Amino acid sequence: MPRTLHLALHPYGVGGPGQHGLWKDPRVAKNASIDIDYYIRQAQAAEHALFDALFIVDSQFINATYPAHYLNRLEPLTLLSAVATHTRHIGLVGTASSTYNSPFNLARRFASLDLISGGRAGWNVVTSFDTGTARNFGLDEHLDYATRYGRALEFVEVARGLWDSYEDDAFPADVARGVFLDPDKLHALDHVGEHFSVAGPLNVSRSPQGQPVIFQAGVSEEGRDLAARVAEGIYAPGGTLEQAQEYYADIKRRTAAYGRNPDHIKIFLHGGPVVAATDEAARRREREIFEEDNDFDRNLALLGRSFGAYDFSVHDLDAPFPDVAHLAEKGGRTGAAKLIERARAEKLTLRQVAESVNQFRRSPFVGDPRTVADTIEQWYDAGTLDGINLAFRTEEELNLFVDGVVPLLQKRGLFRTEYTADTLRGNLGLPVPANRHARERALAAG
Amino acid sequence: MPRTLHLALHPYGVGGPGQHGLWKDPRVAKNASIDIDYYIRQAQAAEHALFDALFIVDSQFINATYPAHYLNRLEPLTLLSAVATHTRHIGLVGTASSTYNSPFNLARRFASLDLISGGRAGWNVVTSFDTGTARNFGLDEHLDYATRYGRALEFVEVARGLWDSYEDDAFPADVARGVFLDPDKLHALDHVGEHFSVAGPLNVSRSPQGQPVIFQAGVSEEGRDLAARVAEGIYAPGGTLEQAQEYYADIKRRTAAYGRNPDHIKIFLHGGPVVAATDEAARRREREIFEEDNDFDRNLALLGRSFGAYDFSVHDLDAPFPDVAHLAEKGGRTGAAKLIERARAEKLTLRQVAESVNQFRRSPFVGDPRTVADTIEQWYDAGTLDGINLAFRTEEELNLFVDGVVPLLQKRGLFRTEYTADTLRGNLGLPVPANRHARERALAAG
């Protein structure tokens, strides 16, 4: 079986979690996160390097303690639409919440991006996790886990139904017969479910890739289940090689259990690689990045975020970790419950817990270009990933990876040497979903 | 006082109401309405001609009887974002419904477009009028008039509040002091109103024009009131010169009554001009367009649309107009009540009413370039318009206007000979709204 590693680029802008100090780097423009030219340059560099996709993450709630990139950034689909006309091959994956959107609007926006880009749109489905976001949408408390995931599943099903409103040959545009639309090939949805009622049809036709690609980032039990049911790409949590193997095998097994081909869900590991001229320089750079970002007050605020933006500074830092079990549900992250459990088991103080939540994520891919290529190959062969979602602190580091690591991966037959498709599905090796109505018609015709 | 006519371009794509046959024209690409390159070309041609704005209308409900352009088109903001990076001066006005969006999401998307375009975004606020759209958003019946307009007003107020989340100098990005954001210049909104609760702040900063420009198309009493309160641009209904004068004076008077400067609301008349080499050729062309579009079955379906997509074909065509007063509220258009009134007063049959609803709108601007320029000047001087929203059936007709009519308007000092601003506000002569928090701070400081 051919080895086909997939690469995506996740632009950091002026710095998200784990890179709070990035904006101070003289090589980083202070307005990167709101500068469309920065994103166009990033996308073009990634396309030049034959990457599969540009991946735009998102969040909707901020306060003054948030990382610089979160404070002031462009909405993902507005951003990607502008990038679309300046690129030709690279996929455009945008994050949008299934909790705070309506299926008709969002399906329409992704369908529009898919047409504008000629079949390169992807949707990273998130359910949003904090009370702060809920309060921007008229809710006092965040929806609970089960409701959010049930809603996400139904949302994706409705969106996919809407994306099939038109069969591929719905528009003969035949002047001689005076027929623009063949009305038999336009289908209402008439969906009535637990969370949504949507009549349809959608007023947008399908793109060359049939439907946008669904991405997800399932970590919890509910998240993994949702991913296995509907995702075609996953933004995986990472961790140690063993943890990544467990996650990879679990997702592929769950996907197969739903009757799906496990090759049709591509698992991307987060990798903020640190590449330098020598292994030692890379390790030194990694330590620098960690230290730069390690700020006690910020870590305390970050800790609060997992508990629904709770203010831990009202507690004694050196007393045992306070009883905040009732807040864990609000944060809605599995992480909150785990933190409480660990604090109790290890008898940690609030200070000790806060010190442990620095969001710097150690990348497995640290070293000179050869070391990084070796490690990627090792992780790929160990069954931990189908792709890597790469984040670089500066354009210089991106270029170091592209010029140093990519050619080695190509030489080993692990990465493409040219684009073989113009759609995101094509490059990811995902099938084009047949229009459901055309399929039914074909079945009925025998 | 200098005369400053404003011009906007409203692309027809493959043909909306009143141009159902447009897609058959060999000069119109069959995929124009979903081809981003078509829109980029239109925007660039309009910018070359120094137009103020590109105006993108919208709707969200379709069935197979709808005009070709409605059936399959791009979502306005996704479209405009792609156009933004291929233009530098022209304003980008997109239509979005205040009934079927949430303020946080929509404010964020327009703010993003405003940053991407360097201060050229405008929002045409519509409340959406049909039951069909409601059924795409989980509602069985459309919200009534008063609720929709109350919601629209509050929606715009919330959006403007969110757009002021950051003061203009909120981001010193001062490396020496380690200060990216000045937290005193970030403001939550904490809005709690009849229709919305939105905490804020928005995670996007202000653009060079401060806030996107608000457009509206107020026709009814509620619509005119909303326009006078919040709109900075109006898409006016047109009609005879006397009707347009009445409307213009009424809107300016209402705006002044709210304590606003009536010059800060720009009234755009719809004008699908018909320009040809001679007056006679233009009138002939106008008749052709009308005849081409006059189809009885379609007119009957259009009639139904004003009554909540009611199917009139179940009635005897030659009997008196049926009693559908109970449906007029559903359609939610003042037009429905007027149609019933006229049918009763003039004792019309269903057939006669249906024949009267052809959506072709006679433009006042028909003739050779000189006649069209004369008529525009006459209407401008008569106090009917500040600008015209121009729609052309083909790129050829657009060029005829640009090359024939625009130079005459310029010669008469009615239209600009170069752009004097890079923002939509700048070109429209609208003030940049000061950030409300900065204003309060200045007032407090005396």
From TrEMBL, chains A, B:
Report domain Luciferase-like positions. Answer: 31-384
MF terms in GO = monooxygenase activity; oxidoreductase activity, acting on paired donors, with incorporation or reduction of molecular oxygen
Specify one Pfam family: Bac_luciferase
Protein's UniProt name: LLM class flavin-dependent oxidoreductase
Could you tell me which PANTHER family the record lists for this protein?
Answer: ALKANESULFONATE MONOOXYGENASE-RELATED, C2H2 FINGER DOMAIN TRANSCRIPTION FACTOR (EUROFUNG)-RELATED
Family recorded in the similarity comment: Belongs to the NtaA/SnaA/DszA monooxygenase family.
Which species is the source of this protein? Streptomyces griseoaurantiacus
> Which NCBIfam families does the annotation name?
FMN_nitrolo (TIGR03860)
Which annotated residues bind FMN?
D58, T95, Y149, S220
Q: Which UniProt keywords apply?
A: Flavoprotein, FMN, Monooxygenase, Oxidoreductase
